[in-house]
């Protein structure tokens, strides 16, 4: 089965976020199932992203799109969530890893939460790089198995665009 995942740069931030939220979601996404376009939470997040920090341009790395990078190579990511999450931090670490592989001396990252007017700072060092590399390896492994991971308990699926696929009318 060809998932299209081969080189380092083909794992994007969405892959990392989905891995940490639900490996099944990552597998489905990587195998072409994309219900995000019909999900209100995703549409809301895109609106927040499109209308916040509009002075900054995305940095397109192929499978990964960084919201913006400031002078000194600090990665910035905007989230519509009202609560910080390890998924968001891992996504920023992945972006740092992708830039470092391109020879950029990355200083770290910042996750912006405009709805709660809060930011979190992400450190980039040797330990963070090892964590990012391990997470990327986990994502590759989750993608390349023949069948998706088991579904999570339905209580963990609230707001997930894949909920109907996994749970149907259950």
TrEMBL record:
Signal peptide: none annotated. Pfam families: Cas_Cas4. Residues 13-167 form the DUF83 domain. It comes from the Bacteria. InterPro entries: Dna2/Cas4_DUF83, PDDEXK-like_dom_sf. Coiled coil: none annotated. This is CRISPR-associated protein. The lineage of its organism: Bacteria, Bacillati, Actinomycetota, Actinomycetes, Micromonosporales.
